[in-house]
C-alpha cells in the first residue's frame, strides 16, 4: 500500500495486487505469465478472492490513518487557533484578560507549544553609547563596543547587515546609526533594541524588569585615543512590576491546565507547577518582541470635497483607534486595513506607511509578515500626518 506525505495511505487496486501475486508466482514456480495470460488460470481464480480481502484491509487501514490525521489537526487547531468553539489557549487566556498568540506547531516544532503573552514584567533597563570621535574608533587598531556579551568592531568600510561590526565613517551621527542598525539586525537584537539619536545610541532591554540591569555595556579603546563613551558597565533603571511574580505564576498555572498532555511548552518565562498526580513540570511562555514603530499617514485632499476636513488630532486618534481594534500580537501588520477613504471622506486617496523607530526610518506600505511573538509598539506621538 503506497504512502505519501500529501495523500497519506492509498489502497492498492485489485489489478495492482494481482500483478504482484503473478510476479511472485513467476518467481516461485519458474512460470512466465503476463497480465493477459495470467487471467483465466486457476492461480488467478484462486488468488482473486484473496486480493479482494487484501484490498478491504488496505481500505480500512487508510480510513484509520485519515481519521487519526483529522484528529491531530483538530487538536492542533484547539491549541493554536482562537477560532475553535472548544476554547483553546488563546481564548482561555483572553478570558483571563490577556492577549496571546501561539506559534504554529509544524515541522521541528511538532509537540512543542510556543505561547506568547502580552504581560508586563516592569520597566525596561536602558543605557547608551555615545560616539565622540568616529575617526578615533578606526585610527589604529579598531575599537569595539560590547552589548550583552557580543562585541561589535568598528571598521571604515561598509558592513554586512547582522554582522558584529559597524561602520565608523562620515560623521559621529552616521556611525551611531550604523551601530544601532547592526545591533538590531544581530541576534543580540532579541535582547535589546537600539536607536540612534544624533551621535548617541540609546539601548533598551526588550524585556522589562530588573533582569535587564545585568545586560553588559562595554567600550574598548585599542590605541589610547578615545572614540566613544558609555553610560555604565551595564544597562540600568530596570524595575520589576510588583504584581508580575504573581501574574507569571497564574499564567503558568493556567497553561498547565489548558495544554495537551505530553506537549512541551517553550519560553523564557517559567514556573514549576505541581499537577494533580503529584508530579511537577516547568510550564513556560514568551513575552512579546516589541517593535518601536513610526507611522506616516499621507492624505491627498479631494478637489471635489464637500465634507468638513477633519482636524489632524482627530484623524490621528481615529487611526490609532482603528489599529487598536484590528491589530494584535502576532498578526501581520496590514497598513491598508487601518485607514481608508471611509475614515476620511474629504480625501481623494490615503496612504499609511510604517517604519522601525531606529533613528533612520525607512517607511514601507507593504504587509509586515510577523512572527507569532512580534508586536508593533505604536503610540499617538509616533504618528505623523501629511496632507497634500
Order of strands across the biggest sheet? 10-11-6-13
What's the count of strands?
Answer: 21
Q: Which strand-content bin applies to the residues?
A: 25-35%
Strand count, sense and closure of the main sheet? 4 strands, antiparallel
Globally, the shape reads elongated
Summarize the amount of helix as a percent range.
25-40%
Radius of gyration: 31 Å
Q: Can you tell me about this structure?
A:
By secondary structure, the chain is of the alpha+beta class. It folds into four domains: 77 residues, no CATH class; 79 residues, no CATH class; 119 residues; 98 residues, no CATH class. The protein is built from eight helices and 21 strands. It has a four-stranded antiparallel beta sheet with strand order 10-11-6-13. The protein has a four-stranded mixed beta sheet with strand order 9-8-7-12, covered by helices on one side. Helix 1 crosses helix 3. It is elongated, with a radius of gyration of 31 Å. About 2% of the residues have low confidence.
List the main descriptive attributes of the protein structure presented here:
388 residues; alpha+beta; 4 domains; 4-stranded antiparallel sheet; 4-stranded mixed sheet; 8 helices; 21 strands; elongated
Gist of the model:
The protein is of the alpha+beta class. It has helices at 14-29, 35-38, 42-80, 89-95, 134-137, 172-185, 244-258, 312-326; strands spanning 3-4, 8-9, 100-102, 112-117, 122-123, 126-131, 144-147, 150-155, 165-167, 192-197, 200-205, 217-220, 228-230, 239-240, 264-266, 269-274, 280-285, 289-301, 347-356, 374-377, 383-387. It is built from eight helices and 21 strands.
Amino acid at each position: 500500500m503506497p504512502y505519501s506525505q500529501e495523500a497519506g495511505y492509498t489502497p492498492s487496486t485489485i489489478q495492482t495486487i494481482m500483478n504482484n501475486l503473478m510476479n511472485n508466482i513467476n518467481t516461485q514456480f519458474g512460470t512466465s505469465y503476463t497480465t493477459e495470460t495470467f487471467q483465466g488460470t486457476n492461480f488467478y481464480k484462486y488468488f482473486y478472492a484473496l486480493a479482494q480481502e487484501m484490498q478491504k484491509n488496505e481500505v480500512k487501514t487508510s480510513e484509520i490513518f485519515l481519521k487519526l490525521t483529522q484528529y491531530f489537526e483538530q487538536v492542533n487547531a484547539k491549541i493554536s487557533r482562537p477560532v475553535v468553539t472548544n476554547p483553546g489557549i488563546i481564548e482561555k487566556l483572553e478570558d483571563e484578560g490577556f492577549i496571546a498568540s501561539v506559534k504554529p506547531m509544524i515541522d521541528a516544532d511538532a509537540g512543542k507549544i510556543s505561547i506568547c503573552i502580552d504581560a508586563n514584567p516592569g520597566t525596561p533597563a536602558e543605557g547608551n553609547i555615545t560616539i565622540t570621535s568616529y575617526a578615533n574608533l578606526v585610527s589604529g587598531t579598531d575599537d569595539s563596543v560590547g552589548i550583552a556579551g557580543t562585541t561589535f568592531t568598528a571598521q571604515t568600510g561598509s558592513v554586512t547587515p547582522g554582522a558584529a561590526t559597524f561602520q565608523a565613517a562620515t560623521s559621529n551621527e552616521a556611525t551611531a546609526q550604523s551601530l544601532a542598525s547592526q545591533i538590531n539586525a544581530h541576534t543580540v537584537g532579541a535582547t535589546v533594541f537600539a536607536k540612534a539619536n544624533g551621535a548617541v545610541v540609546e539601548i533598551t532591554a526588550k524585556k522589562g524588569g530588573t533582569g535587564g540591569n545585568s545586560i553588559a555595556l562595554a567600550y574598548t579603546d585599542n590605541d589610547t585615543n578615545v572614540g566613544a563613551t558609555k553610560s555604565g558597565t551595564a544597562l540600568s533603571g530596570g524595575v520589576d512590576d510588583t504584581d508580575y511574580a504573581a501574574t507569571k505564576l497564574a499564567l503558568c498555572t493556567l497553561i498547565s491546565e489548558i495544554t495537551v498532555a505530553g506537549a512541551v511548552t517553550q519560553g523564557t518565562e517559567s514556573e514549576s507547577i505541581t499537577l494533580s498526580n503529584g508530579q511537577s513540570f516547568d510550564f513556560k511562555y514568551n513575552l512579546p518582541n516589541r517593535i518601536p514603530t513610526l507611522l506616516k499617514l499621507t492624505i491627498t485632499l479631494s478637489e471635489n470635497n464637500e465634507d468638513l476636513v477633519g482636524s489632524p488630532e482627530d484623524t490621528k486618534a481615529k487611526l490609532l483607534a482603528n489599529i487598536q481594534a484590528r491589530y494584535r500580537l502576532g498578526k501581520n501588520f496590514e497598513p491598508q486595513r487601518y485607514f481608508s477613504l471611509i475614515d476620511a471622506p474629504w480625501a481623494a486617496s490615503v496612504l499609511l506607511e510604517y517604519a522601525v523607530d531606529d533613528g533612520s526610518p525607512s517607511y514601507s506600505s507593504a504587509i509586515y509578515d510577523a512572527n507569532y511573538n512580534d508586536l508593533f509598539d505604536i503610540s499617538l506621538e509616533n504618528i505623523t500626518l501629511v496632507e497634500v
